[in-house]
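Onboarding guide, step 5: your first structure request.
Type a short instruction followed by the sequence, for example:

Predict the 3D structure of this protein.
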Amino acid sequence: MIFDHIGLITTEKQEKEDWVESTRVWVTNPKTHPYKVEWLRYEPDSPVKNAVREKPHIAFQVENIDVASRGMKVLLEPFVVEDFVKVGFFEAPDGVVVEFMQYLKDPNKWFQK
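The system replies with structure tokens like these:
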């Protein structure tokens, strides 16, 4: 497991936001933030509910989401973003929201664009 970023929720438009249609959220690229922060701005009609939409999260790169998330409560079933990364959101026993990211392509090449 490798630390990737922290995700913070905002209602203010951020520079260089990207649109994620499946979750109807605007996100920034944490790879370009000096402290690895990903800003998330949810549209009112986003299907994302519960702690994923209400709390910050911490994200880790993992080799296998199913293995990494064993024993954790599923908050948002894993889904694929642009054939690039599979992500899922889970709740740790202490209530922390965790995002596991299983890269399907080399993240270094993706984030150079």
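Each response can be followed by summary notes, for example: Strands lie at 2-9, 18-20, 25-27, 37-42, 57-61, 73-81, 85-91, 97-103.
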